[in-house]
Amino acid sequence: MAIRIDGKVISAQVLDGVASDAAAFLDSYGIKPGLAVVLVGEDPASQVYVRNKIARATESGLNSIEHRLPMDTTQDTLNQLVADLNADPAVHGILVQLPLPAHLDEEQIIAAISPEKDVDGFHPVNVGALSVGKESLVPCTPQGCMIMLEQVLGDLSGKHAVVVGRSNIVGKPMAALLLQANCSVTIVHSRTPNPQALAQQGDILVAAVGRPEMIGADWIKPGATVIDVGINVIERVGPSGGTQRKLVGDVDYAAVEPVAYAITPVPGGVGPMTIACLMKNTLVAARRLQQMSGV
Ligand SMILES: Nc1nc2c(c(=O)[nH]1)N[C@@H](CN(C=O)c1ccc(C(=O)N[C@@H](CCC(=O)O)C(=O)O)cc1)CN2
User: Fold this and answer.
1) Is the peptide bond before 70 cis (omega within 30 degrees of 0)?
2) Of 98, 113, 273, which is best to mutate to test ligand 1, by the most ligand atoms within 8 angstroms of its C-beta?
3) I need a surface site. Which of 34, 119, 135, 195 has the fewest CB within 10 A?
4) What is the complex's ipTM, to 2 decimals?
5) What letters, b where the CB count within 10 A reaches 16 and e where it falls short, cover 41-68?
């Protein structure tokens, strides 16, 4: 039986660390690290994520500032809010929940956030710093995956890691972090011929494709560690004949678990780590901004 890498347990450890760091920050500077969370529109999943982010921030001793804007918010209004948050010394981290409504330009908004307050780590300055191995704010989901991998495997040097998916939010930064940890890294994507054959060579497999249960046992090297980043809602026929909604990952957990060394579940795996790392990044940003201000 594979080790179940429990994101709820590991994220609670991360959040404990954030809470004591936040208390020390308050002691030193007389203010709480501040996280501004911006939600545009009423996407139900985004509302849940934002609610959870605010709850974790409050529990960890951070000051969370919530901005809910209507669906028809203009790019100018959102830009003005981001500019105000950039200028506000009480705000150390800014997070604009994605996806934005289709009429808004995500790339432009991400670039408008001050790189020092970009706790998502999506700003081109932070992306560039990560790719050359310089200190940066690291995207939360891949950061959470690295914490889980290092907790279960220790030193990752020399391991062959296969990342399935090449998104800017997960696949690319994940590959950069694995490379920084001295793994040999293969990225597999929609244009890769025979991706399964490459995936089968991975000591570590990270699935971030957004396709429910796409990765079966025949993608996995026996004894591999499997990190499932996917969060997909599917509908299945339940025992009473009606349809049931279920949350599944990109990995077919039941099929893969018997061949893996360790595996993350969905839910309760990578998801809670994403939120915990957001809190961690807010602390990192707050400390740096405070040092830069020289106060
Ligand atoms: N600005 C950002 N937008 C988005 C990000 C992000 O990192 N920054 N990531 C995702 C959504 N996301 C965080 O925002 C996120 C998704 C899922 C979870 C989570 O804890 N999932 C639970 C299940 C929750 C459920 O029942 O629906 C789990 O996996 O156990 C946390 C954060 C896209 N947007």
Assistant:
1) no
2) 98
3) 135
4) 0.96
5) bebeebeebbeebbebbeebbbbbbebe
**pLDDT tens per residue across span 205-251:** 999 999 999 999 999 999 999 999 999 999 988 888 899 999 999 99
- Residue 161: strand pairing partners: 185, 204
140 lines ligand 1 (CB under 6 A): yes
For the chain, how many residues are written? 295
- The residue whose CA is least distant from atom 17 of ligand 1 is 271
Strand order through the sheet with 225-228: 3-4, 262-263, 225-228, 204-207, 160-164, 184-188
Active-site entry in 120, 203, 250, 252: 120
| Cβ of residue 267 lying under 6 Å from some atom of ligand 1 | yes
Q: For residues 164-177, b (16+ Cβ closer than 10 Å) or e, as one string? A: bbbeebbbbbbbbb
Domains and CATH numbers, the chain: 30-114 (3.40.50.10860), 140-271 (3.40.50.720)
The answer to whether 167 is a known ligand-binding residue is yes
Tell me whether residue 114 is annotated as binding.
no
Which residue has the least CA distance to atom 25 on ligand 1?
267
Residues 6+ away with beta carbon under 8 Å from 228: 207, 215, 249, 250, 251, 253, 263, 264, 265, 266, 269, 270
